[in-house]
Specification:
This protein has 168 residues and is mostly helical. Helix content is 66%, strand content 0%. It contains seven helices and no strands. α6 packs antiparallel against α7.
């Protein structure tokens, strides 16, 4: 059976390695306490900062509560009955071209005139209808004959099927 260390040189190299490791261990031993102290200091600093932040948050929440109690009551918004979602790029517009008698060109013209939703068409007064027909270049009575207000009411309420049955 062969021994791992047979010569004096091999034993000397082993001894030097062991002594070097021992010195390295001694040199790094004191640093462990230093890093432990730094870690504990950082933990304390973090806990102090967290406490300050939490107290600041509580203070701001009290201020917000006070401001809300002094603010006037919010005005209720009249939402569409169907809860229609306008989409990301609709920016509050309805697809007016779904109303029979309004094509894409007429829809664009209505939008230019400031009419962008079913509700605005639904709320048109008879005098406003005549003026709108004139601005659109449509024959007098077109809006009433084609039932734009009724169609707009059905579409705004989300009654797609009923709109399709009545107006095709």
């Amino acid at each position: 059976m062969a021994l791992p260390f047979e010569t004096g040189t091999q034993f000397a190299a082993l001894a030097l390695t062991l002594v070097g490791g021992w010195f390295l261990g001694l040199a790094s031993r004191s640093g462990g306490a230093k890093w432990r102290e730094r870690y504990q200091d950082e933990e304390l600093e973090h806990a102090r900062y967290r406490d300050e932040a939490e107290s600041r948050i509580r203070e701001l929440e009290r201020e917000l509560k006070g401001a809300r109690s002094q603010a006037p009551a919010p005005v209720p918004v009249d939402e569409p009955a169907g809860g229609a979602w306008r989409g990301w790029f609709g920016w509050g517009r309805d697809n007016l071209a779904r109303i029979k008698g309004i094509d894409e060109a007429r829809e664009k013209r209505l939008n230019e005139l400031g009419i962008k939703t079913y509700r605005e068409i639904e709320k048109l007064a008879p005098d406003d209808e005549a003026a709108l027909e004139q601005r659109l270049g449509a024959p007098a009575g077109t809006i009433g004959e084609q039932g734009w207000r009724e169609q707009a009411a059905l579409l705004r309420a989300g009654n797609e099927r009923e709109h399709g049955e009545k107006f095709g």
